[in-house]
Amino acid sequence: MEKLIAKDLLSIGAVFFRPDEPFTWASGIKSPVYCDNRLTLTAPDVRDDVENGLAKLIMENYPDAEVLMGTSTAGIAHAAITAHLLNLPMGDVRSGAKDHGRQNQIEGKLEEGQKVVVVEDLISTGGSVIEVVNVLREAGADVLGIVSIFTYGMKKGLDRLADADVKNISLTNFDVIAEVAAEEGYIDAEDIDRLIAFRNNPSDESWIK
Q1: Contact at 8 Å (CB) between 108 and 66?
Q2: Which residues fall within 8 angstroms of residue 91, CB to CB, at 6 or more apart?
Q3: Ranges 29-33, 54-58, 97-101, 181-185: which has the least confidence
Q4: What is each CA distance from 2 to 107, 170, 171, in whole angstroms?
């Protein structure tokens, strides 16, 4: 599964490595990788692999799930499709409460005590998805955990998830995608160590040639 999804994401440019011409994140960090999992929605074959994969992760790891909640905005479509496959209710959590109407932050019906799985597209430092988990917990939900398409496996993200006492299960991860990218000729094999160095400490730019 991890290698299949890695190949899928690379094939459509949803994950794109450019170690010699780094991208700049909003935070200012230089990154050798660009990730846009929204592209999976416009590639039906890849989309099938992703959504069926997410459904499988939920069935295997959270068999008691009663509701899926997508993160705003990238997780919403994936939560909706996966919920359809599993015949489960679905909603989403906004980044902030609306300033009109009922001022909802949680969209969709959620009853206190319901067992919820959060659906996210990617996890880097984990901040945004943990905010979603906290909002759901404050509303009385029993958050079983998170499923995501891709995780960087950054220490900061892993520490935050541990501190929040919530687990994440991903379809694939940074290390696997880097390995597959080298096997498939997207990057040179010697680039893998540089990519892992970035993953281990994004603020240290010594990996840049």
Answers
A1: no
A2: 67, 68, 69, 70, 79, 106, 107, 108, 109, 110
A3: 97-101
A4: 31, 8, 6
